[in-house]
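@channel sequence for tomorrow's demo:
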Amino acid sequence: VVTASSGNHSATVAGSSTSATVTNLDPSTSYTFTVKAINKVGSSASSARSVAVTPVILSEWSAPSTVSLPLNKPLNYSATLTRNDSGHGVKHKTVTVYRRGGPSSKWRAVRTLKTDGHGRIATTLTPNFSAEYEVVWAGKPGVRGASKITSVVVRPAVTAVLSKTKVRAGKTVTLSGTVQKFRAGETVTREGFYSGAWHVWNTRKVSSTGTYSFKIHPTSKTVDVYRVVSEAFHHRGAGISPSVRLTVR
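structure tokens (generated this afternoon):
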């Protein structure tokens, strides 16, 4: 039998057990514990008291792990802080939102907020590059703090326009467009949709002004669907253009 020093809390386990869980302890109270062995003959003397411990209640954030959004689009970020013991929101507490460019970068505070009556925070962020955001609550006596990291992937806008949407077999048509927040010389890929999936056709390099173009020379009557994908690199996700449809007569 394991007995807490106050509050008449105890737990009884088999003699072969190496641990016991004592429940309903007060997180603001320091406890020591003693152990007593009991069998059909009787009970032993209590053991020496354990080291004093103070229970804490865990808390946790409910927030997305990953978010993907177009460049220049605001991020409506929200998160909820709850206690693990009751599931109730941790209300009216000051929390901080930090940002860093990547694992090797330093965290920098970007918002100081306060949870509402349900433990929720909400704010609008305007990331112009991919980054990690961390919401942190330091905790309070009896309740351990919590943090949660959300990875935000920012995608550039990619345009794609056909010089003609209808063309005769054997004629040439141009697929061209631009990449927003581009890197000169980056690769864009022309993809075609068929057999229920997207497939790579060919690639081009983006010019110093952020433009690209593909020459398409269809040889048979069909309807082709294309899109253009820009590569992902540091601080920026891959961008995907709207699809375009070419009718070959």
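heads up for whoever presents: DSSP finds no helices and 20 strands in the chain.
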